[in-house]
Design a protein that fits this description.
Elements (H helix, E strand, L loop, with lengths): L3 H37 L6 H12 L3 E2 H8 L3 H13 L3 E5 L7 E5 L1 H5 L1 H15 L5 H21 L2
Antiparallel strand pairs: 1-3, 2-3
Protein name: MarR family transcriptional regulator
Pfam families: MarR (PF01047)
Keywords: DNA-binding, Plasmid, Transcription, Transcription regulation
C-alpha cells in the first residue's frame, strides 16, 4: 500500500507528464492552425517564417546567427528558412561590413508590406485560440511557462 506522500508524488509526476503532453499538442495544433490561416488568407508563409519576419520587423538587418539564437534554431534550419523567404523576395542577405564572414538579413519592400496583413491573420487566430480564457488565467499561464523556459535555460548554461 502506498503512503500519502507516495500517492502525491505519483500525482505530481502524472500532472507533469500530462502538462508536457498538452504543451506539445498545443504547439503542434497552433502551428497547424496558423499555417492554415495564412494559407486561407492567400499567404504562402509558415508559422516559422512568420516568427523570423516578426524579428526583422522589430529590428531589420540582423545576422543569421542572431536570428538563429533568438528562434532557438540550428544553422541548417535558419539557413533553410532564410533561403525560402529569399526565394519569395521577402528578405535579402547583405554582406556585413563589420564582419565579412557573415551576412545581415534585411526585409525587402515586399517583406515590409506583409507586416500588417500577416499581423491581422495572427491576431484573429490568436483571438480564436484564447477565446473564453480570462486575462488573469493567461497572465498566470505566461508566468508559469516563462519560469519553465528559465529553468530549462539555466540547465543548459
Amino acid at each position: 500500500m502506498m503512503t500519502d506522500t507516495e500517492i502525491m508524488d505519483h500525482a505530481v509526476v502524472d500532472l507533469r507528464n500530462e502538462l508536457g503532453s498538452h504543451l506539445g499538442q498545443v504547439a503542434r495544433l497552433s502551428n497547424y492552425l496558423l499555417d492554415s490561416q495564412f494559407s486561407r488568407a492567400g499567404f504562402n508563409i509558415t508559422r516559422e517564417q512568420w516568427s523570423l519576419l516578426r524579428l526583422l520587423w522589430a529590428e531589420d538587418g540582423q545576422s543569421q546567427q542572431k536570428l538563429a539564437d533568438r528562434l532557438m534554431k540550428n544553422r541548417a534550419s535558419i539557413t533553410s528558412l532564410i533561403d525560402n523567404l529569399e526565394k519569395q523576395n521577402l528578405v535579402v542577405r547583405v554582406p556585413n561590413q563589420k564582419d565579412k564572414r557573415s551576412k545581415l538579413i534585411y526585409l525587402t519592400q515586399q517583406g515590409r508590406e506583409l507586416k500588417e496583413p500577416l499581423a491581422d491573420v495572427f491576431e484573429a487566430t490568436s483571438q480564436y485560440c484564447f477565446r473564453s480564457i480570462s486575462e488573469e488565467n493567461l497572465e498566470t499561464c505566461m508566468e508559469v511557462l516563462l519560469q519553465v523556459v528559465r529553468n530549462i535555460k539555466s540547465n543548459n548554461s
